[in-house]
UniProtKB/TrEMBL annotation:
One of its GO terms (biological process) is methylation. Residues 25-167 form the tRNA/rRNA methyltransferase SpoU type domain. CDD domains: SpoU-like (cd18097). It comes from Pontibacter fetidus. This is RNA methyltransferase.
Length: 177
């Protein structure tokens, strides 16, 4: 096997990416403090064709060198918006018929492997702060809570890793529909 060159990967230009049909998913970052995590989420959103990222509360915004260090230019291709209050955004997205899912460890959570997106439905997945997770008032106003099954000794995954796992799972399930 031979590793492919950058030219052989045939990646879309930023303009081509912006015009492509996206998966029916937006990401909501609820007070994510690490700019490296924010940049990684941008890169994941670009890779898997996410509609938009909402950067809420204290979550940093581009342009910033620490975001760019991990985003590698994805801040130019992925649509994003800063919103000061996560709960207000969640309520607004619900009015726009998005199903809201918080990615968190909570009572009566739905294990990721048991989650099946409804065809044609748009979703917003809320990813929480590195220490405190998703705010309780946001969880209370979510339609469901997704939990990534874990089997080791640690109680959580890094937010950028969790985002990659959840978005890939969502994409693979919607592609199969």
């Amino acid at each position: 096997m031979r590793k492919l060159s950058m030219d052989e990967l045939n990646r879309a230009s930023v303009e081509e990416f912006k015009n492509k049909k996206k998966i029916p998913l937006v990401l909501v970052l609820d007070n994510v403090r690490s700019l490296n995590n924010v940049g990684s989420v941008f890169r994941t959103a670009d890779a898997f064709m996410v509609e938009k990222i909402y950067l809420c509360g204290i979550t940093g915004t581009p342009p910033h060198r620490d975001i760019e260090k991990t985003a590698l230019g994805a801040t130019e291709s992925v649509e994003w918006e800063h919103v000061s209050d996560t709960l207000e955004l969640v309520l607004k997205l619900k009015e726009q018929n998005y199903k809201i899912g918080s990615v968190e460890q909570a009572e009566n959570s739905l294990k990721l492997n048991e989650f099946t997106p409804e065809p044609g439905q748009h979703y917003a997945l809320v990813m929480g702060n590195e220490v405190f997770g998703v705010e309780q008032n946001v969880i209370n106003n979510s339609d469901f809570v997704l939990e990534i099954p874990q089997f080791g000794t640690k109680h959580s995954l890094n937010i950028s890793v969790a985002t990659g796992v959840v978005v890939w799972d969502f994409l693979s399930k919607t592609m199969a529909q």
